[in-house]
Amino acid sequence: MSGATKDSPRPKIARRALDGVLLLDKPLGLSSNDALIKAKRLFLAKKAGHTGTLDPLATGLLPLCFGEATKFSQDLLEADKTYEATMRLGMRTTTGDAEGEAIDERAVTCDEAAVRDAMTRFLGEIVQIPPMYSALKRDGKPLYEYARAGQTVEREGRNVTIHALEMIACALPLVTFRVTCSKGTYVRTLAEDIGETLVCGAHLTALRRTGVGALTLDHAVTLDALANIDETARDAWLQPVDALLSTFPEVRLDDDATRRFLHGQRLKLSDLSTDMLEAGRVRVYTQEGGRLLGVAKAGEGVLAPERLIVTAG
């Protein structure tokens, strides 16, 4: 009998050095980390990371970074997010969503106009109390561990910004809405707070993320679709590293400036052939060929390297 025996080591899988961004349409019931592991395995990638968690009960856009793109994942953590969500009025749950147990039921006496009016009160900067069922830590332990043990701890309110909030459909007690919000916003908590404003309570029954910064679901792909195509077709779904940086102004450097930039040297803006005047973060490319070199911060007359692409030399 040939082949590996029970005690023989499994053959080592050759991993690939891939650089790019995958716009994944995460399925229901899968954690962000599990989705990352599955995608990394499909691409046989050496290095990968995600850009912020999406609850298992949420679906939608989960940008995954491979190789050099992982250096810029923090920028998406800071980005605004857009979601489509459905809330059920008249019932609160332990978790604020459909996964929890009902803890309070009240009659829904409001109409669609009242719901619209309540929603407008949450536009702009608001204060949210983070939910107990969240990964935020207290004394080194996630809040959800306290919650599962039946404990409630004090949480400080956090300022978040609701940039846009619009009703998509209303068939009471169900209301579907679209929200664009700053980082750290809990849509579950937003639904609960709207419910309390309407004096009937509410919980979230569905949540789908449709946008992260400038990235949208328009060019996203599912794990099932990736699993059913060959390596070449799969690789074609990878966006370039600078897909994460599309909102940054662009600066191009000649050969001499490129060399100095890649050695971490600060460059005088007056020496660069650029019309960039405003201070802020920029994406930096070579003059010839347009290769991405990294990200820099412009200000006080200089261009200071922040994160560099190792393979761009």
Description:
With 313 residues, the protein is of the alpha+beta class. The protein is 19% helix and 34% strand. The chain contains eight helices and 18 strands. It has helices spanning 32-43, 73-77, 112-120, 143-148, 187-197, 223-227, 231-235, 255-262, and strands at residues 20-26, 48-50, 58-66, 81-89, 91-93, 102-105, 124-128, 137-138, 141-142, 158-171, 174-181, 202-212, 215-216, 250-253, 267-268, 280-286, 292-299, 302-308. Strands 1, 2, 3, 4, 7, 10, 11, 12 and 13 form a nine-stranded mixed sheet that branches. Strands 14-16-17-18-15 form a five-stranded mixed sheet. Strands 5-6 form a two-stranded antiparallel ribbon. A hairpin with a 2-residue loop joins strand 17 (292-299) and strand 18 (302-308). The radius of gyration is 23 Å and the shape is globular. The relative contact order is 0.16. The model has no long low-confidence stretch (mean pLDDT 89).
Largest sheet: 9 strands, mixed
Estimate the strand proportion.
Answer: 25-35%
User: Which overall shape is indicated by the principal axes computed on the Cα atoms?
Assistant: globular
What is the CA–CA distance across the termini?
51 Å
Number of helices, where a helix is a run of at least 4 consecutive DSSP H or I residues: 8
Gyration radius over CA: 23 Å
Number of strands: 18
Low-confidence stretches: none
Order of helices and strands: EHEEHEEEHEEEHEEHEEHHEHEEEE
Helix content: 10-25%
Structural class: alpha+beta
Mean pLDDT comes to 89
